[in-house]
Every structure is written in C-alpha cells, then in structure tokens.
Amino acid sequence: PPLDNVINLHDFENVAKLVLPEKAWAYYSSASDDEITIRENRMAYQRVWFRPRILRDVSTVDWSTTILGQKSSLPVYISATALGKLGHPDGELCLTRAAAKHGVIQMIATLASCSFDDIINAAAPGQTFFLQLYVNRDREITRKYVQHAEKRGVKGLFITVDAPQLGRREKDMRMKFVDDGAGAEVQKGQEVKKDQGVARAISSFIDPSLSWKDIPWFQSITKMPIILKGIGCAEDAVLAYEAGVQGIVLSNHGGRQLDTARSGIEVLIEVVKALRLRGYYPDPKFEIYVDGGVRRASDVLKAIALGATAVGVGRPFLYAFCAYGQEGVEKAIQIFRDEFEMNMRLLGARTIKDVVPEMVDASSLSSH
Ligand code: FNR
C-alpha cells in the first residue's frame, strides 16, 4: 500500500507483516512466553483517562523538549532495536537519516546491523545519539566500545539491565538462525547457538553476572550520563538514584523479557511515589523515561503527565522503515507531530511543561 494510506502507527505494523520475510517478522514482533506483557503494554494506556482543560488559547502549541539536556523536537526518542537489516537493506541508517531531518534522537543498539561507525558517519553535523549497551563478559570490549562512543559524541549511555538472559520468544525460537549478513558486528568470532531463533543466536556474549557493584566502574570509564534501561519496580528506581546514575527507563523490553512484568506506565506511578517520598523527585539531574506500547501522542502525554521526561518508541519506527525505508520513519515522526498538535490543543496544554498530573485520571492503574 502507498505511504499516503498510512495514517497512524498501527498501520506500519500491518504493512510490515505483509512485506517482511517470515524470519524478520518473527524476530521483530515476537514477545516472550504467552505474550501477556506485550498486550498489557497497550492496555495499560487505555486505563489512563484525560482530564482536559479548556479556554486556554491554544493557537500555538509546542511539543519540543530536552532529553538529558539535548534538544529534541518530540518528547519521544527512537529506542534501540537490534538487527535492522533483517527488514531493510539500509537497516538502522533509515532511522539515522530521518532522525537527522526531524531533530529526533536515535538510540543506537549494541546489536545494530550497521556498525556503530557507519551510523555515526552517516549523521548530520550536531545530530544527537544515545547508545544502548549490552555488557560483554569481556569488560575490555565494553570499555573500548563505550569510550569510542563517547569520543564520537554520543550523549547518553543506556545500559540494558533487564536482559541477563534473553527471554523465550517462541515465535522467533521456531526459526533457525541463518547468517545472511544482517547480523551485528559484535557477534563476529563468537560461538552462536543456531537452533533457537535469532535472538538467542546473537546474545551469548551478554554478561549475566552484571550487578549494582559494576555501576561505579561504568562511572569511572565514561563521563556520559548513565541511564539504566529496564527498571520494573520502585525499589530498583530508588537504588538507581542512590547509585548516582542520571536516569532510568521503566521498560519491560517491549514484552520480550519477563512475561507478566507490568507495563512502564503502571510502574511509573509507584516509582514517582517512592522517589518523592525520599526527596529524590523531582530532581533535574535524574530523568525518568518509559517505553513499551507507545503508539499515540496521547500515550506519550499520559506518561509525561505522570512524571516521565520522554518516552522510547521501538517497533513502530522499525516497522516504518521495513515497509517504506527512511520515508516511512519520517512519516511516523510526522504522525506524532500531528497527533501532538491535536492532543495538546484538546488537553489545554501549550507546552510540555503544561502537561501536569492533574490532566490525567490514573486511578484505574493498580499502583495508583
Ligand atoms: C528491542 N529492544 C531492545 N532493547 C535493548 O535494550 N537492546 C536491544 O538490542 C533491543 N532490541 C530489540 C529488538 C526488537 C526487534 C524490539 C522490538 C525491541 C527493546 C526496545 O529498546 C524497547 O524497549 C521496546 O521496543 C519498546 O517497546 P515497543 O515500542 O516496541 O512497544
């Protein structure tokens, strides 16, 4: 179907399902076990209701913001998704080019199909990137990777902490891994298990011994802000703050890790409450992000109202480039823009700062 027919982010998923090879669709769309968490990621947003304000002169509305001190045209960043070349020959570069054109921040995946340098070399002057890190059992490899990223101007290090072992994504596990050149750099020279799907084949280097004791080491090897990606409860949010990191992502990895883990928006309520109780929130030096199931600007505004600085979006951007390349990603960004304009006007919020807790009724979330 022509790109003009795409009018919301769900459409990209439907088109991707039509055009992608079976193996790519299985890897991208799968979630762990019974796929309960991936469904809940959508449903939780539907339990949050707006409390709109009227008569506020919304002739101009502005949804731009800053994330870790970096300008962003949207309160949304492109979250890391691995193996972009399974879905498009240009892989992650589709994201890079679209992000450059529209002032959106891209988080580069450790397991991107394009090499880190290929992505950075394709960047526009001054383009902002974050780096997603899977920590290698060999810390020298990790140290070099992180320090190289910092040298090349990456503005934030998102350490994935919810994947000491990859989840059982059964749709994906039914596929045999065949190396077709879409693989990531880091897997080279590594022993891979080829009989259990793409995810397991590429992830054997990840260190399951990673612990809170390692955080000072990361702080000693880089000056980039450190963010822990994959926090699922208030207790760990408090530990993260006390460890001196600059932020957390409340995430269940798009439903791909622990099945029946709660959604990020649900977790946000208890995290803000626990941090506030200890005087840790609000703190301009500690940002909270949410990801998983965000498909509408209204979802983003709900997360912001409840205390998030910005949200991460994974599959929609991935599906957009699988179906339409760079242009698809640009269209996805445009859809967000149109939706922000309408939703902020109808909500009575002229800027992101106007999006306050009183604008939502979250009493149907269980941790309220
Ligand atoms: C991911 N995600 C992910 N996260 C991470 O830290 N490292 C990674 O390599 C990947 N790879 C990856 C691949 C694919 C195909 C998907 C769908 C997701 C998780 C990602 O960063 C983010 O947390 C979720 O995708 C957010 O959920 P939505 O937006 O996809 O619903």
UniProtKB/TrEMBL annotation:
**Which EC number(s) does the record attach to this protein?**
1.1.2.3
Any one cellular-component term (Gene Ontology): mitochondrial intermembrane space
Keywords linked to the UniProt accession:
Flavoprotein, FMN, Heme, Iron, Metal-binding, Mitochondrion, Oxidoreductase
Output the GO biological process annotations, alphabetical, semicolon-separated.
Answer: lactate metabolic process
Top enzyme class, one word, equals oxidoreductase
Q: Name one GO molecular function term.
A: L-lactate dehydrogenase (cytochrome) activity
Provide the primary localization.
mitochondrion
Query: What catalytic activity does the UniProt entry give for this protein?
Result: (S)-lactate + 2 Fe(III)-[cytochrome c] = 2 Fe(II)-[cytochrome c] + pyruvate + 2 H(+)
The signal peptide here is none
Q: Which domain of life is it from?
A: Eukaryota
Give the protein's cofactors. heme b; FMN
The record describes its quaternary structure and partners as: Homotetramer.
Q: Which family does it belong to?
A: In the N-terminal section; belongs to the cytochrome b5 family. In the C-terminal section; belongs to the FMN-dependent alpha-hydroxy acid dehydrogenase family.
Name of this protein: L-lactate dehydrogenase (cytochrome)
Full-length numbering of the shown residues? 106 to 473 of 500
